Amino acid sequence: MRFFSADKKTIIVGLFVLVMLLSLGALAACQPPDEHDGGTGRDEIVSSLTFADSFGQTDLPNPGRIIENSGDFIYAMDWLAFYRISEETAFEISDGYAGGIESIFREFSGLRDLTELADVYPLSLGREYYNDYKIITLTLRPTAIADKEPDIIDTSAEFILPFDYNPNLNKRASDYDSFAIMSAARSVAVTTGEQLWYAAEHGYRPVPTAGSAAEKIYREAKDVLRRIVSDDMTDYEKLKAIYNFLTCEVRYDRATANDGGGEAYRAQCYYLEGVFFNRFAVCDGKAKAYCLLAAMEGIEAVRVTDFNDDFQGHSYNYVNLDGKWYLSCATYGSAEMNFGDEENPDVKIVPQYNMFLTSVDTSLGDGWTYDSGMFPEIKAAVETEPFDYWAFTAINVSGNLQNLVISSADGLAAVLEAVESQKQTLTNTMVEFRLEGEQTVDEIYDIITAEFEEYDVFLVQSRPLDSGIYGVIFCRAG
Question: How far apart are CA 471 and CA 354, in angstroms?
């Protein structure tokens, strides 16, 4: 009652002060506490989240609680994908790293394109606490993958094999298990094909779970290497055999690649299943298989993904041969060619070595830039000149070694005769050579067709067109 008995001025002033105090209190409540002061708000938030370092130790090293750089960020996403962890997982972003990030969402989106496993699954970024506390959360949604078999595998096109590829070498016993990867110091339990190739690529010895897809794939991969590789081969010869397997025994699933449907990620052609179960895959399946097979033989290789200007994706590999890095693309290492006509097509799958061990500036020109942001240190170390397969490869011609740099039709004919003598037949065989002489291609073709008239002989040119690389293809005589 006394309050209301005060004079009007006192009441107005009193109310004004009261409102001001309440407003200041509200404003103070809206201000974020110092993110470094360890205040109660931050402590409560931290205690409500599950940080990566709180998970039990896994075979793959757990990512740290604090993400210090882009490499840590990529690994955190791949680790979640490797173990298919669906629980919202928190990470702190270090001040140093955060200071160089303009937008955490753009950083996340850009780095997700550089991951090796996480790009398969839906993955979301939680940034509710980022501005105040430099804390993010990642939530992965594991989905079914690699469970859709191809409806049809068209096997009508015959494979043409390089003369120096023996798909049935069979110099290793059926129970041979002394693969180089078996001596790896670290091991990782694997269940899926994605886990299998990733573990192998990163230098781990995969230990497949009994009855799992990984166990079946690994068994098939071992059988392939027992068949096409021998222990007395050099790393170069082993790598070439692996490249030839992928280019000459695995067909390209063009229908699925062109479809691009909403559930394309379930198609086996994108995974090891496509290569080892169906011999039917696209670039990503081949690139993953390249990693696995090379790692099993102790040869370092990584899978790389890229997008061209039309936002079409592509996968290929960097491989390390004798301390030198090269780009290798098993997808464009072969091509379908029609040796007939429109009315009577005769499609064959023709290999080529121009994509075996090459540079980032590949023979495909503007078709693909091969300019991925993955593995930048390796990319910078890739050789600027392709490996010279044609000068390096030698044939025993009448007791003398002759390489595949050809200066005349007579020299080429001598090489081809030596190959025929070793293989017994040239049917469905190709011999690549580099022409460095004055004779024209037409002159050489006329002489070779006359010399080998029992075959249907074709001469194809490899890219780049100014390289002088040609392939002589022998088919069954009509």
Answer: 11
